[in-house]
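Deviation from plan, reported transparently: magnesium ion complex.
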Amino acid sequence: RAKADGRGTFCFFRDEMAATVEARRILELDLRKALANEEFELFYQPLVNLKSGKISTCEALLRWNHPVRGTVSPVDIIPVAEDMGLIVDLGRWILRRACMECMKWPEGVSVAVNFSPQQFHQRDVLSEIRYALEVSGLPAHRLEIEITESSLLRNTQLTHDILSQLHALGVRISLDDFGTGYSSLSYLHNFPMQKVKIDRSFLEGIDTDRPLTLLRGVARLSADLGMAVVVEGIETNEQLELVSADGTVSEGQGYLFSRPVPAVRIRQLLDASHGRRLGDAQIVSISS
Ligand code: C2E
Ligand code: MG
Ligand code: MG
Ligand code: MG
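Because the crystal trials were delayed, the predicted structure below was used instead.
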């Protein structure tokens, strides 16, 4: 059909492409305005210490309240912002906002901030981080930077130096989405990192058919290498029980504890959890 109707098909694709290019152009224009118009917002999702049941850290997750499109996912924002070179300005805003917010939380609670590869590899990343700590007054040990494996695969010597300097500063580095890439943990361990977040894909089906072996193996290896272990994407009590059973996983994160919520809500959650265990029905209902 495509052959018989070659010209028409070509026109169709050309229109499609033009429409995609146009949509992308509009998205870029909107993104540029969004920062100035204060359309970005940070949601926060708790990481829960599985031994104490208390919130140890809250991860900042970007949301865009688009005037027409409604809430836009970070998955659609970050890659475009990277292409446009907007990620540095956007990332600076995210980091400072997250540090300032953390200052309103109980002292034992840290904030985790996601860094995209480009943001992590900007020339003055160290001074950006130092400055964010300085203007917010947040002690370095309450900041955790989440990077993915792709940030570790370029400029490896430079990356190593940056991580060492961050470590010296007291900032924690957390390896996000571990297990979705192709690197082995023994390679990644060459970099100074304090935490590993095991991707939620490792949880899929473990409460029904998939064996726990893989998750347990990765968790144990990370712990043996001296890193704290987080499992992300815990949605059910069954999963929580399986993950907690052998004591190697130190923290959990997922809808079971709470979905990502606005700043005001996380403050209420932190106040409520002060002195109380998380992981029960109350929290699940707060988060929905
Ligand atoms: P991530 O850093 O791995 O964050 C976890 C994502 O999984 C979040 O999606 C969160 O809402 C979702 N999640 C948490 N618990 C569960 C669960 O139990 N079940 C399921 N199905 N999902 C769960 P979100 O907020 O849409 O963010 C997606 C990704 O976008 C993040 O993955 C991160 O890579 C990126 N991102 C988000 N905010 C930022 C940011 O401020 N800067 C950068 N550079 N990237 C960001
Ligand atoms: Mg993350
Ligand atoms: Mg993650
Ligand atoms: Mg993830």
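DSSP finds twelve helices and ten strands in the chain. We consider this an acceptable substitute for the interim report.
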